[in-house]
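Need tokens for this chain, all 277 residues.
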Amino acid sequence: MKRMFFALVLILGLVLSACGPAPTPAPTQDLSAVETQAVASAYADLTAAAPTPIPPPPGPTPDPALPVAVVPAAVSGQPAGIANYNTAIMSGPGTNYVLYSVLLGGTTVQVTGKSQDGQWWVIRLNPQNVGVGYGWVNAPYVQTANTENVQTIQNPETYTTAAPVPPTSSGAPSATTTDYVNVRSGPGTNYPVLVVAPPATTGEVTGKSADGGWYQVKVPTQYSSTGLGWVSASYVVPQNTSSVPVVEAPPAPAVPAARSSKERAHISEPRTLARGA
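Here are the structure tokens for all 277 residues:
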């Protein structure tokens, strides 16, 4: 009888223990999450160690008042470049020179030289548009090829840009510039440049050269002690100038001694700045 009682107690204990709460299973790792986290950590480490990228300079928006350059196309195998962005063509290697025109991004150019500091390229221009036949573009804006042996060009002289003295009366003889025009000390390209007159500026005309190819105009006395200068008739629109007197040209400057071919190779000549002689 006692054996039966103990057997029932044992069975009852087993039944009650089976009804208790189940033990908590051990957690399992999500391998995909672990791999994702490892990749993210590695990417973060690599990004932190990488140098900060320096974007190229943005190209300026072309000024609608400035002409867009039409330049001779690059020649295969020759020193050449392509504009990465819209940029400016200057008369020298710096923003303190005369601005010729806008070079649009994607335009190919012929490279003929570089500046002394290597930061500007000299490119060929149409001499019918820019008399000297070349201009300067900032190197970071242009990708070049075959330029390892191009010559170094000496920086051209810089000139001040200023307008001539306007007419004192509505009917006075005058001349309006059609481009950047060199105002010279005499009627000829052998005379030095006093100042550069910007396009669409009007000055009072006081005389003309014997051949009619130059007008004498008034300029601020800070640029000429006489208050007078000369502009080429080819780059101005004259008004009321039919009766202006013929003015004798001042003595021409001395002609410099001839340079050797080696010296000429490193000199940017001629030094006129714009289409205006």
